[in-house]
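Researcher: Let's do a round of design. I'm pasting the structure tokens now; please hold your answer until I've finished.
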């Protein structure tokens, strides 16, 4: 785990977060935001943009907990959403020839 210092990847995350059609969600992430917390996808995407705009730490990690994506690069953000610290893990994947920002988790920290 180390801090992501590449401005281009931070801008890419912001760009995708601003275009919901370019974002895909794991079942786990959807359960965490809808069922457990009552948040919306929009709440999470807005928090991602604000987090980067506020120059908060974005960590670069290697996926270890998802067999399908094990060994691949992912990014972790820890924004405060409605008074609760969240743990958001995402990565860029290809779905049917289209690059998407895939959110794997969005749970309480």
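Researcher: That's everything. Go ahead.
Model: Designed sequence:
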């Amino acid at each position: 785990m180390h801090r992501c210092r590449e401005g281009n990847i931070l801008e890419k995350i912001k760009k995708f977060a601003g275009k919901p059609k370019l974002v895909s969600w794991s079942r786990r992430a959807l359960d965490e935001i809808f069922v457990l917390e009552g948040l919306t996808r929009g709440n999470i995407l807005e928090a991602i943009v604000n987090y980067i705009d506020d120059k908060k730490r974005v960590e670069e990690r290697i996926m270890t907990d998802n067999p399908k994506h094990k060994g691949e690069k992912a990014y972790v953000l820890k924004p405060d959403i409605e008074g609760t610290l969240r743990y958001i893990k995402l990565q860029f994947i290809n779905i049917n020839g289209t690059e998407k920002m895939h959110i794997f988790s969005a749970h309480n920290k």
